[in-house]
Amino acid sequence: MEAQILFHTKHMLGEGPTWDSENERFMWVDIVGKTLQSYDVKANHVHKWSFSEYVTTVVPINKEEVVLAMHNGVYIFNLISEELTPLANPIKNLNIRFNDGKCDANGRLWVGTMEVHGSANEGALYCVFPDGSVKEKVVPVTISNGIAWNTTNDMMYYIDTPTKKVAAYDFNVQTSKVAFRDYVVAIPDGQGAPDGMTIDEEGMLWVAHYGGWKVSRWDPQTGKQLDEVRVPCSNVTSCTFGGKDLNELFITTARQGLDEEELRKQPHAGGVFRVETKTRGVKAYSFR
Questions:
Q1: Which of 132, 195, 268, 280 has an alpha carbon within 20 to 30 A of 217's alpha carbon?
Q2: Are 53 and 71 in contact (CB under 8 A)?
Q3: Per-residue pLDDT for 255 more than 90?
Q4: Which residues are a divalent metal cation-binding (predicted)?
Q5: Comparing C-alpha atoms, which of 78, 68, 76, 75 is closest to residue 35?
């Protein structure tokens, strides 16, 4: 499969794609550009909000509100009034920032951290509850990234990028307890590093390859690669299923780290891409 350019955005670090099924809109961020974008499919309109610090994760709450992970705090953001309300801030070191995140079936936000320069073992994966309380769940990690749950909600898949693997954790959806089980996917050498991730209705994992020019599809039961989506730029950051039938894969990319020659060869680097798939995704959970 070949991904096609949807928005030629030239993001330095496009990330955090999510599909808001209730409102038929696709949302994503540019971490380094400190912006949030929302594409309203019905209106065929993209709206952009700018902030004074990194914005790393967006998860819908309702039509007017989203939860945002920013440099070192989690906030409720009103899309209409543009009011930013603090929710949680477990980070006391300004050299640590939030990164990728997602909500589980009970509406809790799972969001991880990293040291701003990627120093080893300085990050963690947190669970943020709707009342603003926070629990540390996986520690230490280096670059907390992709996260997904299976359809029966008893398994959580998680990526700490430098491991170049996808880890599986036994998951209790009622208590939020996690327990490491095994590594289920290993990215081969020369194919970049695993970044963001999503899951389809068949339980297969779709992994973005930073530095690898693609999104790959894996069977976590066998550890075998099943398919891939080729992207015409190297730094592929994340992906999510969207569209009315959840059969469109939206893909974010980045320009950071590319020199002038590489950017000349990758004119759409930092853009948002789309491909129609034979497989349907699963609906993303909202924060509640």
A1: 268
A2: yes
A3: yes
A4: 15, 145, 195
A5: 68
Q: How far apart are CA 140 and CA 65, in angstroms?
A: 31
Over the stretch 184-241, which tens digit does the pLDDT of each residue have? 999 999 999 999 999 999 999 999 999 999 999 999 999 999 999 999 999 999 999 9
Question: Residue 215 in contact with residue 230, Cβ under 8 Å?
Answer: no
CATH number of 4-276: 2.120.10.30
Output the average pLDDT for the chain. 97
Under the phi-then-psi rule, with left for phi > 0, alpha for psi from -120 to 50, and beta for the rest, what region is 270? left
Q: Which of 189, 177, 97 is nearest to 142 (CA)?
A: 97
**Going by C-beta distance under 8 Å and a sequence separation of 6 or more, which residues neighbour residue 138?**
112, 124, 125, 144, 158, 160, 169, 178, 180
Instruction: State the pTM of this model.
Output: 0.97
Q: What is the pLDDT of residues 53-74, one digit of tens each?
A: 999 999 999 999 999 999 989 9
Name the active-site residue from 154, 195, 227, 259.
195
Active site residue 195: yes
One-letter identity of residue 105: A
Helix extents (H) in the chain:
260-265
The token pair at 184 is: 């289920």
| Domain ranges across the chain | 4-276
Summarize the annotated binding site as residue ranges: 15, 97, 99, 145, 195
- Give the residue numbers of the binding site for a divalent metal cation: 15, 145, 195
pLDDT reading at 92 higher than 90 = no
